[in-house]
Amino acid sequence: MNYLTHNYRIIIILCTALLSGCNKLLDEKSDLKLSTPESVQDFQALLDRVTDVNINYAGSGEVCSDNYYLTDAGYAGLKNEEDKRLYTWQPDHVALSGTSGNDWRYCYKTIYSANSVIYGIKQKNLTGADNVKGQALAIRASRYLDAVIVWAPVYNKATADRDLGVPLRLDPDMNPGSKRASVKACFDQIIQDLNEAKELLPAKPIALTRASKGFAYGLLARAYLYMGDYNLALANALEALKYNNLLIDYNALNPNDKVPIKDMNVEFVFWGTMRLAPPIGVSIAFIPETLYNLYGENDLRKEILFNKNANGTISFRGDYTGSSNSKIMGVTTAELYLIAAEGYARSGQLLEAEKIVEKLQSNRWKKGKYSPMKDLGQEELVTLILQERRKELLFRGLRWGDLKRLNREGANITLTRSVAGTSYTLPPNDKRYAIAIPEDIIDMSGIEQNER
């Protein structure tokens, strides 16, 4: 069976069903058969569709995180009951059925596109396709990493071969039934894809919406950090920084600008955004004062990243997309520096860790006001780096994974929310850290739901 031709027709149907108003994947042609990709350029065109590849990374983990809170009015104003249930860590029915608001569908739609490219290049035996294949592998890995952090238990080396991960679909054939792979199998596949991708990708992409070597190494660093393999996280972060090590000097930003940080800035390694779930909309998601107060008086992030509202609430405005309507999920150099710093600190290389933290902080503090750290022990330095990570990577889709991995290490972080006088709690290592898979997906596929 020619799966590519058969299933490419399906992806056009899916595109229409899943994203209303979606354009055709290739230039419009009167005969549908003619729009089946045939060349390297055709497959590149599939991956250059930003609406299919770069946006709508899962927002569910961010909704469940402690980066923000809703007022009672903000909570009551949420249109969908599923969003309310997700915000209060309910065990089920936390995703809309159908298309909009369903992170799972967006995730696997992109995986399907990547699989179509990988399969099509192999089937047609195309030459000169290494770059395109590498992009598809990296994109697939990024979505599987996103998925396993949101919908699976935290990576635990002792149980990863038994814990349920997510289904691994590695070709565009939609006929075989779905089955959840183990968490270990998911990470094995992610790492395999990225190791292959980094050998195929260019050092510098034509556009930041395309994958590059730095992106592949950056995702490896992110994955190994989540797994708790700090040496490999460090090694891959340092490798990624060879391709881009630039940081924005916040002294050069204008805090009076509506959006001080511009899109496609020098810190981007790869441009991607998460689904902007209603609870994290800028008009209702407010920053806890305890988080805001972590920023020192001379830390420019305090005025660049936030707005203090007339009613005393604090809003976030530090999105790297140049718009409050989208939040980045791609890799940036700041994230890579923080991974490297944590890797150095946890391995006992304290001086190297301090150098990296100082490089980042000196670009975030007022000129002449930054004082280098002195004589910190390993535990103190790790704590400082984690606090710096907390301050630097707000609304990047990373906090949920951090909560899971840090609680695995014994951080004992308990989350609480209050809504209309009712208190909700998420204890460390609770089974709800594996967010419920959408019920419509369970009904259609027959895969197992997460334990509760």
SSE diagram, text form:
Blueprint: H1 3-18, H2 40-47, H3 50-53, H4 60-64, H5 72-76, H6 81-87, H7 103-124, H8 130-151, E1 164-167, E2 180-182, H9 183-200, H10 213-227, H11 230-241, E3 273-274, H12 289-292, H13 301-304, E4 306-308, E5 314-316, E6 327-328, H14 333-346, H15 350-362, H16 378-392, H17 399-408, E7 415-419, E8 422-426, H18 439-445
Antiparallel strand pairs: 1-2, 3-6, 4-5, 7-8
Keywords: Cell outer membrane, Membrane, Signal
InterPro entries: SusD-like_N, SusD_RagB_dom, TPR-like_helical_dom_sf
Pfam family, one: SusD_RagB
What does the model show?
This protein is mainly alpha-helical. It has a single domain, classed as Serine Threonine Protein Phosphatase 5, Tetratricopeptide repeat (Alpha Horseshoe). It has 18 helices and eight strands. The protein has helices at 3-18, 40-47, 50-53, 60-64, 72-76, 81-87, 103-124, 130-151, 183-200, 213-227, 230-241, 289-292, 301-304, 333-346, 350-362, 378-392, 399-408, 439-445, and strands at 164-167, 180-182, 273-274, 306-308, 314-316, 327-328, 415-419, 422-426. The protein has a two-stranded antiparallel sheet with strand order 1-2. Strands 3-6 form a two-stranded antiparallel ribbon. It has a two-stranded antiparallel sheet with strand order 4-5. A hairpin with a 5-residue loop joins strand 4 (306-308) and strand 5. The chain starts with a helix and ends in a 7-residue tail after the last helix. Mean pLDDT is 92; it is low at 1-34. This is SusD-like starch-binding protein associating with outer membrane. It is found in: Cell outer membrane. Residues 26-225 form the SusD-like N-terminal domain. It holds the Pfam family SusD_RagB.
